[in-house]
Amino acid sequence: MPEGVEVPGDDVTLVLDAYGDEEAPGVLLAHGGGQTRHSWGGTARWLGTSGYQAVTVDLRGHGDSSWSPEGRYDLADHAEDLRRVAAWMGAPPAFVGASLGGLSSLVAIAEMPDQSAVASALVLVDVAIHLELEGIARIGQFMRARPNGFASLEEVADAVAAYNPHRPRPSDLSGLRKNVRQGDDGRWRWHWDPRIMRDPKVDEPRTILHRQRLERDAASLSVPTLLVRGRNSDLLSERGARRFLDLVPHAEFVDVAGAGHMVAGDRNDTFNDGIVGFLQRVQPVRRETLEQ
Questions:
Q1: CB contact set of 218 (below 8 Å; sequence gap of 6+)
Q2: Alpha helix segments (H runs only) across 145-210
């Protein structure tokens, strides 16, 4: 499994991990704002053993990818980065994106003249065009809080537990090191460029300032599309999901019981089964791969 692969670009270098056979149908997984490629690790490993090549990437300004010198973190910048990774993969992959990664995937695909030359399918994970303002505000408050960082990983774990109170607090805190970095002052800060959310008008999924653009993009989608919602999500309501399905009549819909906004982490088994089932219909793997 290639890890820490660097894909250079004009202003940033992206870092990715790849799972599975490089000759297999591809799946490109894009995380949400403030996360890293490691948030997709479990799903990527599952896809890799299910006959796909799964690639997880740190978005610009996140994780091990470089920060934009000019602070360019708009949807168009993320979309162009994802197209670059898709080209690195070879044949057009299925895009799977959560929150910011999902809407960046939508733009990456829908705003190209030949969508099938970029992607084989699109999976949006608990994100659409019309989101709940309270959920958007809660994410923004979490991401803008603690600009001076944390004194310990215990404090990081406390902050995550407060944001996701329904999830058990981990007893082993070593995994948090993938989402924070320790500065020269010894304090731990989130592993992303704070300029991503420097403008108070900017929301994490980038919907408020781009709604009309995103509506046009959604209405123009021609690739197979799946919308996955966490039934307990405070960001994407059932009404918001239905509005997206009205814009994209050919889209499929899965409502995952017992999951919130972080669908893959809340119900990883159910989420993975739904993703693989969809991909096997729209981008089937070779039969001999399934029988191994």
A1: 106, 110, 128, 129, 244, 247, 248
A2: 153-163
**Chain segment 19-70, per-residue pLDDT in tens:** 999 999 999 999 999 999 999 998 999 999 999 999 999 999 999 999 999 9
The confidence score (pLDDT) of residue 286 equals: 67
- pLDDT < 70 stretches in the chain: 1, 259, 261-269, 286-292
CA distance 213 to 170: 40
Domains and CATH numbers, the chain: 5-132+205-290 (3.40.50.1820)
Q: For residue 92, which of 129, 55, 139 has the smallest C-alpha distance?
A: 55
CA atoms within 13 A on the CB side of 76: 6
DSSP state of 14: E
